[in-house]
Amino acid sequence: MSIVTTSGLTKVYTVGETTINAVDGLDLAIEKGEFLSIMGPSGSGKTTLLHLLGCLDVPTSGTVSIDGKETGELKPTALAAIRREKIGFIFQEFNLLPVLSAVENVELPLRYQKVKPAERRRRALEALAKVGLSERANNKPGQLSGGEAQRVAIARALVTEPALVLADEPTGELDTTNTIRIMDLLRELNEQLDLTVAIVTHDPMVAERTRRVISIRDGKIESDKAA
Amino acid sequence: MTFILRNMWRRKARTFLTIFGIVVGIFALTVLGGMTARMNQQINGMKGFITDKITVQPATAGSHMGMDIGGGKFLELSKKAEIEKVPGVKGASGMIMVQLKAAEGMSQPQLMIGYQPVAGASMFNNAKLSSGRELKPGDAGKVLLGSTLATDLGAKVGQPVTLLGKQFEVVGIMDTTLGVTDSWAFVPYQDTLGIFLAQNPYFKAEGLTQQITVFPKPGVNIETLSSKIQSSVAGIKTTSPKQAEKMISNITTIFSAIILGIAFIALFVGGLSVINTMIMSVSERRREIGLKKAIGATTGTILREYLGEALMIGLVAGACGMLLGLLAIAGLNRATHASNVVIFTVTATVIIGPVIFATILAGLAGLFPALRAARLNPVDALKEE
């Protein structure tokens, strides 16, 4: 069963008199439980594709379906609901809120889902346990190392049990040891929880740890193969 | 709420300065509000004294709605008899005033008011007596005391008090009106006239009055009666209850205008500082807004979060400004207490008004930055460095 399908997905940017086809008529299907990477050089359109898949941006033409639901005609509030219920995001710079502790950061998506505080706390602690950070639950982001911060961000992405986790250069800020740790963690979560994970990266070391690698160049799929 | 308070705490100095800016305005608003409340109280305290009767003064007296009794000019008491002949007049009372104690600073002067009680008509229709009775026709050597003056003299009904060297028997003590009459002593006209003439030997006339108070018969239109007296009796000027109310409202309007002016200054300074702070906060937290939107926050959620922060700034500033204002009011009232002066009054409006005002002000000022935050495109916001 496909978690995500795109058909003729296109995103065109106009800068002055120049038009750029960041994503150019892309057809793609991601199945449930997949662990894949989207590779490509800088400016290839991989981050734009991630934003389109994550309902953060709207396509110029073509369609995106998430968990069987076509997103093209949806209003901003409905798109926010899809992001809230179906998608978990992991970013390169972790994007943890500095005023909140680790566990409060993990609770944030549940807060937007209007989950009750006690239940929220229980699930957030559970998610932190899954990434091995139970003992750092009450630390603020400033007190965490880069690797730990990214693990908190991963816990935040999976706490809502999303249909799809989208990661944008999740190891971009980390050293090799931490990169390997994070990739191993994501793979474990994928296997244990049957979590669908799509990672945007330009790092071959990251790509080779996924099971499917989609290479993108100039907004088009250059290759799509099992790693 | 957790977010709001922690976000405010992030930039302590900036939050403090913004709050401080509003506190100054709200402080001024509270103190002036207390002063206006006191003015209104005093004016309202006077109302019972002037609003159900017609005040007659010399034609040459200034415009003073009967509060300063005669404005230094005098009428012959014979005018009272002339007025009483006008159809519709139940009775009239001549009035003469001498000073017991001069005003000190902002205090009210203590006065002795001599009047001629009219049978079946109360001089103080709204004011209640806490004990005893009003003066009645035929009383001599009796006094009805305002509450503050009674306290000052330690007076009790039935006991004697000495005023300006003359002994009077206290027949009644009025309830506190918070108006100027609280420090007045009401005595029969003849008793006061005696004292007045002793103090002012150059006045040869025996029948002097500074003001005549006219009571209408039941069912008579008091406004029409006022005009009728004005046209029937020469050399006088009448003030009807309606005219008196108008003069009172003119005074209260002036104070309201002053308060409104201060409110606008607070509005301008406080509003700009909240807008500035909130715009800065939104600019600094664009990435966070992007992140929140990415993980499912709606436009409404972000709007509420930032509007909540602005409202909280207003609420805290309003509460602090109001409390400081109340503190200043308490201190100033205590300082003037010894001289029997109350400059400020604290009413519910004085307490709640500035806090609500500051909160709404900050909310309105925060609306534009909050809308800006809420409408941010998540992709653009996440790109921010």
Overview of this structure, please?
- The complex is a heterodimer of chains A (227) and B (385).
- Chain A has helices spanning 46-53, 76-86, 102-112, 117-130, 146-158, 176-193, 204-207, and strands at residues 2-15, 18-31, 35-39, 61-66, 69-70, 87-90, 164-168, 197-201, 212-217, 220-226.
- By secondary structure, chain A is an alpha/beta fold.
- Chain A has a six-stranded mixed β-sheet.
- In chain A, helix 6 (176-193) links the parallel strand 7 (164-168) and strand 8 (197-201).
- In chain A, helix 5 packs parallel to helix 6 (176-193).
- The model of chain A has no long low-confidence stretch (mean pLDDT 90).
- By secondary structure, chain B is an alpha+beta fold.
- Chain B folds into two domains: 2-43 and 248-383, no CATH class; 60-234, no CATH class.
- Chain B is 55% helix and 17% strand.
- Chain B is built from eleven helices and twelve strands.
- In chain B, strands 1, 3, 4, 5, 6, 7, 8, 9, 11 and 12 form a ten-stranded mixed β-sheet that branches. Chain B has a two-stranded antiparallel sheet with strand order 2-10.
- In chain B, helix 1 crosses helix 9 (299-337), helix 2 packs antiparallel against helix 10 (348-374) and helix 7 packs parallel to helix 10.
- Chain B is elongated and about 95 Å long.
- Chain B starts with a helix and ends with a helix.
- At the A-B interface, helix 2 and helix 3 of A face helix 1, helix 8, helix 9 and helix 11 of B.
